[in-house]
């Protein structure tokens, strides 16, 4: 079904940039970049970078029967499929609704079977084209390596970025969340707020490149579906399937970094020993263990790493790794369906937290806090968590990015607000140059 050839590349960084620019001519693009973050990915990294372009077939749907439709598409295609699951697929999994404002209007689910694929590992690229277009491999490769005009970083100086929830309103809403926690309705919930710009005209590719360069995260994505764009600098893996092993790596716990080496180490140690951050993380680990157990072989759910600190360019993060094993007859889509949405973006108990989130947030999350990734022909998969991301509709000229934090009984509304602003800092820097 596919023709595969291998090439050696001298300058991988330059080639990735050329590949990204070449891809932008296509209607459908998924560019996944690990930014060589081997500290997090060393045990579970399949590729350094993957590009999928140009849909041969695709599926686009709202949340109604979405997982059932995806299961049918994935099991029949038996090929590489790339796309996303939006947060609002929760409405397919549970008796929930999403009635908040939506300025983007992306489909709830979108996957496509690409005609053209590129897999980069070390200094090699494997090119896989569907047989119907394999005569274009060499001419495309020549075109890619001849690209020299790689553009400049662009900002959004003329456009004002607005905050959907004011600081005063945010603190009031978090106080209401704390009332739910103290009453025993929930233990923890992830509460998010949106920043947005209307009449926004940007160059999505250049904005993505700048966002990626200042963060260099392990799960970066440039996604394009015609007029819908995701520019994603995510540090978090949602779920990976590798043969019969399932891997989840939730993040809970964030600290800023310092240019001073000693102070940076202190900040890292403080995060590691912070009782609030640890309790947040452990609550989500418990939730993930419960989610994985729904498809796991008995007694196969294990915590490989608990509350380990990983360092990225902008922040320190507390990350845990939970694994399980599944039977070879278990549908890959069923594993996603029984764990979605990811616990790090919801709270515990999950359904109660999602209900409360919906009443207090003012924006439909959509693709934010959903997942982007791929299925392999044999049913393995790898998906990130869509955070630290800019969403853009060129048709509506609407730009959006959201940030959130986990609210627990130990939360102080003012500090949670400051954490949200810390997470928004990279997006402001990219869009406005500040």
Task: Give structural notes.
With 434 residues, this protein is of the alpha+beta class. The chain is built from twelve helices and 20 strands. It has a 20-stranded antiparallel beta sheet that branches. A hairpin with a 3-residue loop joins strand 14 (302-311) and strand 15 (315-325). The mean pLDDT is 93.
- Record field, number of beta strands: 20
Low-confidence stretches at least 5 residues in length (pLDDT < 50)?
Answer: none
How far apart are the first and last residues' alpha carbons, in Å? 49 Å
Number of helical runs?
12
**pLDDT averaged residue by residue:** 93
Shape: globular
Please sum up the structure shown.
The protein is an alpha+beta fold and 434 residues long. It is built from 12 helices and 20 strands.
What keywords describe this structure?
globular; 12 helices; single chain; 20-stranded antiparallel beta sheet; alpha+beta; 434 residues
């Amino acid at each position: 079904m596919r023709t595969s050839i291998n090439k050696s590349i001298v300058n991988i960084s330059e080639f990735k940039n050329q590949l990204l620019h070449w891809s932008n001519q296509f209607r459908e693009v998924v560019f996944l970049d690990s930014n060589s973050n081997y500290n997090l990915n060393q045990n579970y990294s399949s590729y350094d970078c993957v590009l999928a372009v140009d849909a041969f077939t695709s599926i686009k749907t709202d949340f109604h029967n979405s997982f059932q439709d995806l299961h049918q598409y994935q099991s029949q295609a038996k090929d590489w499929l790339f796309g996303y699951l939006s947060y609002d697929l929760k409405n397919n999994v549970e008796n929930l609704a999403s009635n908040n404002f939506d300025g983007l209007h992306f489909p709830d689910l979108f996957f496509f079977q690409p005609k053209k694929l590129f897999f980069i590992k070390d200094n090699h690229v494997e090119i896989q084209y569907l047989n119907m277009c394999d005569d274009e491999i060499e001419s495309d490769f020549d075109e890619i390596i001849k690209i020299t005009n790689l553009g400049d970083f662009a900002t959004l100086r003329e456009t004002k970025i607005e905050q959907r929830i004011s600081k005063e309103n945010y603190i009031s809403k978090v106080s209401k969340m704390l009332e739910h926690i103290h009453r025993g309705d929930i233990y923890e919930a992830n509460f998010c707020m949106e920043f947005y710009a209307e009449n926004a005209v940007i160059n999505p590719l250049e904005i993505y490149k700048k966002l990626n360069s200042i963060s260099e995260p392990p799960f970066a994505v440039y996604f394009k579906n015609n007029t819908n764009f995701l520019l994603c600098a995510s540090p978090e893996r949602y779920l990976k399937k590798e043969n019969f092993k399932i891997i989840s790596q939730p993040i809970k716990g964030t600290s800023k970094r310092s240019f001073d080496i000693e102070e940076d180490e202190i900040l890292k140690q403080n995060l590691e020993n912070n009782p609030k951050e640890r309790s947040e993380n452990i609550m989500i680990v418990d939730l993930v263990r419960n989610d994985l157990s729904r498809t796991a072989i008995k007694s196969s759910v294990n915590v490989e790493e608990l509350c380990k600190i990983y360092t990225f360019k902008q922040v320190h993060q507390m990350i845990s790794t939970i694994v399980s094993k599944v039977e070879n007859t278990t549908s890959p889509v069923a594993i996603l369906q029984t764990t979605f949405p990811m616990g790090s973006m919801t709270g515990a108990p999950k359904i109660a937290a999602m209900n409360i989130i919906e009443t207090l947030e003012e924006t439909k999350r959509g693709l934010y806090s959903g997942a982007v990734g791929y299925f392999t022909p044999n049913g393995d998969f790898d998906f990130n968590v869509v955070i630290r991301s800019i969403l853009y509709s060129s048709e509506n000229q609407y730009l959006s990015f959201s940030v959130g934090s986990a609210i627990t009984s130990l939360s102080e509304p003012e500090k949670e607000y400051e954490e949200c602003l810390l997470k928004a800092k990279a997006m402001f820097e990219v869009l406005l140059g500040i």
